[in-house]
Design a protein that fits this description.
With about 525 residues, this protein is mainly alpha-helical. It has 23 helices and 9 strands.
Amino acid sequence: MITEYTLFTTLAFHHLIVGGLLILLLSLLKFLFKSTAEMRSWILMTAFIISTLVPFSLFSSTTVLTNQIDANSDSEKVTSSFVEQSTLIENAEQGIESQALWHAPSEIVFQFSELLSLFMVIWFFGSVWRSITIVNSYIRTRNLIKLSKPLPKQAALNLTPNSPTEIYVSDLISSPMVVGLISTKIILPLNITEQLNNDQLAPIVLHELAHIQRNDIWFGHFQELIAVIFWWSPVIRLLNSKIHVDRELACDLRAVKQLTNSKQYAQSLVDCAKLMITQQRSVLAMSLFSQKKELSNRVSEVLKSKSVKTPSKFVILAVCLGLSVTTIKASQLFSPKISINDTKSDGRHYSLLPVSEGEQLINAVMNNNIAQIQQLQNDGVDIDIPAIGDGTALIIAVKENNATMVQALIDLGANVDQSSRGDGNPLIMAAMTNNLELAQLLINSGANVNAIVPRDETPLINASRRGYLSMAELLINSGADVNLSVRTGISDGSVLRSPLNMAPTTEIQNFLIENGALN
């Protein structure tokens, strides 16, 4: 589950950062430039979509120097420099643009895994609850339509002479609303139709028609569906709130443009508000008010509507498209990609197989039972996830000096760089046991000679500290960085370790210096 938690945390981080920066940018632009509610509502909807989709566009299958986890800024400089150089070389060879890779540190995710588990449970039940409320709202809306009565034809024609939209009345609601995705209808509260005349009702109906013209009910559905998954996100909550406010203002201004007197519309808002004793807004419907405090702001905007020029659809589309392209391009250029392979590898480092599966896998490796390992894979067992207290299957095979099993596991797809908490990785294990044959086999199979494993450093550091000159020579000849140092964790004294300062003999020290060791 650590891999899934790491991926979820990484996506959530990107979503909050992208969404937060968009909100800050739009707030700044709103302060610097005047814009209409019509324009703002569509820009905010664009930001809403971008903040949810852009993080998923940052996925990458590229793998760059897996397991390069460092615990201190002193060694980060060395590691970062090496990562950047290796990435540039690798990408240049592949003919692709260099791109940084990042995911939430699996070590931190592991430390907070219990809290994350609790959050995931809360998130799940929160999503289920929102789904239930949407379904219930849909059922209530369908029942409302069935129980509503059509407004007399002549009265409907007087209110909407140029629209085929049907108008219904109901005593089950307290504010006007639009319902229906395909066959849209306007439903008015019965008390409003009885107590307001046509001049007072017309602006209200025009407001609801504006929602239909803007396809707001479709976008409202989309917002609610996204909110089912992202209900926890302050970005989504804030954008939803802002979209609603500007959407209602935009519909006000559309409606008032069809009237000769803006004061007539403002008075209708006030008259309607007086009749609304309680608020009742269906999730799947558009109402006239969501909060009473919006009334004064809307009346004020309506009264000065004559000075507001409505932007054309082309201008709105161009601005929204420009915002989308700019944000996506900026994200691609400046936001680090999410490496799925690295995320999986680091997540597995802190994961463990269930006891029964771990025991079966260990027994199969110890008994050279390749068929059983294949069967375990077919049953869904990930052979790259460490077994409790023993490491991965490949690490166990290296520890047992079983070249046949090592090759078989590699042929079955085992990750030659997969590390395990407390057990290093396959190449580190080969370096620790001075097994030149298996080290060469792993390197030939693509093992990263400069992989850093938390609390187990690198293959070269392990070979040097044990005085294995031949192993150090093999690793350096295979590309190991003689100056790649790692600071240990606090439990190990927070010491900076390098191949040179860990070398126990003059012979291996001299050898490292001859090959460029500086520290």
